[in-house]
């Protein structure tokens, strides 16, 4: 039995319970909704869904709404459960770059082709960080040693997306991505601990996950993998400005089960549009250091296909 299958068996009872409840709620899809976070509490996907829940309930955009965590296998367990909820328009799920990567990395028997795209909503970018006492003060310092011995720099991060950023950075820095020494962790907190204890020498992580440690002087930020400096922390230079062509967005989007009608898809799209106009959502964007990146319809459908091809290409270059 594969690792993906083992995770699926472990979670199926919980997932079935909430899917049955959602299926019995009647025709008004906003009356009783389920928002799925395909990860444990406290992470980026969970935060996204709970911020959406707060904005929607505060502004009476929905009736009752529950957030259900379906963790496992880089989000593909949640995606698999959503794909079985045929026609259930009262349930939506957050997805993103990391889940597209998880499907490729794990060769999961489910993909975004098996669900209904609704809209891309926000994106954020990783920063490259090192311990405060690290000898590396610039990316060029780090890259010099990395090029000389790729295995000498142990990288860490909190998920599939963070590993993708390291791989793209390696390619831009003329380092063989197949030679990367990478220590996976389950979140930004564990990745930070690996840096502080010396288990790893460098990390990529969402800025929000490491901002407290940067502000406290425990970590140094050497660059951000964004097209331009982030608002509020313009002192962190981009990788592009330092000569490394790395611009990889960690986007987050909403998808629904397969088999919903065109009218239901438009209703869910309208719900997302209304959500992002609320003061509560705008506050969440600021607090979480997100960038607005709304996209829906055929443009978003094509974007998902392009992302899958791009990430599959990255994994191929990594030798995975």
From TrEMBL:
InterPro entries assigned to the protein according to its UniProt record, in alphabetical order = BUG, Bug_dom1
KW 4Fe-4S (keyword) present: no
Give the family, as the similarity comment puts it: Belongs to the UPF0065 (bug) family.
Q: Which UniProt keywords are listed? A: Signal
Q: Which domain of life is it from?
A: Bacteria
Q: Which residue positions does the secretion signal occupy?
A: 1-22
Q: Which SUPFAM superfamilies match?
A: Periplasmic binding protein-like II (SSF53850)
Protein name (database record):
Tripartite tricarboxylate transporter substrate binding protein
């Amino acid at each position: 039995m594969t690792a993906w299958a083992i995770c699926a068996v472990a979670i199926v009872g919980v997932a079935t319970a909430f899917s049955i409840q959602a299926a019995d709620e009647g025709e008004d899809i906003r009356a009783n909704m389920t928002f799925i976070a395909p990860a444990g509490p406290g992470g980026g996907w969970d935060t996204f869904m709970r911020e959406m829940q707060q904005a929607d309930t505060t502004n009476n955009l929905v009736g009752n709404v529950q957030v259900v965590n379906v963790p496992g296998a880089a989000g593909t367990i949640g995606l698999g459960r959503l794909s079985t909820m045929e026609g259930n328009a009262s349930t939506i799920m957050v997805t993103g770059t990391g889940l597209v990567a998880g499907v490729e990395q794990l060769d999961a028997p489910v993909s975004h082709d098996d669900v209904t795209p609704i809209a891309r909503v926000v994106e954020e970018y990783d920063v490259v960080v090192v311990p405060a006492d690290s000898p590396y003060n610039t990316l060029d310092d780090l890259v010099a040693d990395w090029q000389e011995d790729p295995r000498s720099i142990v990288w860490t991060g909190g998920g599939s997306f963070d590993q993708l950023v390291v791989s793209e950075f390696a390619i831009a820095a003329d380092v063989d991505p197949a030679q990367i020494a990478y220590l996976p962790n389950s979140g930004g907190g564990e990745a930070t601990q690996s840096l502080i204890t010396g288990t790893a020498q460098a990390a990529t992580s969402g800025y929000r996950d490491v901002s407290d440690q940067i502000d406290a002087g425990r970590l140094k930020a050497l660059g951000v993998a964004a097209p331009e400096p982030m608002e509020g922390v313009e002192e962190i230079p981009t990788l592009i400005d330092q000569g490394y062509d790395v611009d990889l967005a960690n986007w987050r989007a909403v998808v629904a089960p397969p088999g919903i009608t065109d009218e239901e898809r438009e209703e869910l799209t309208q719900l997302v549009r209304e959500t992002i106009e609320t003061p509560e959502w705008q506050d969440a964007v600021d607090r979480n250091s997100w960038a607005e990146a709304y996209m829906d319809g055929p443009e978003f459908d094509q974007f998902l296909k392009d992302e899958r091809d791009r990430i599959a290409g990255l994994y191929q270059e990594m030798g995975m």
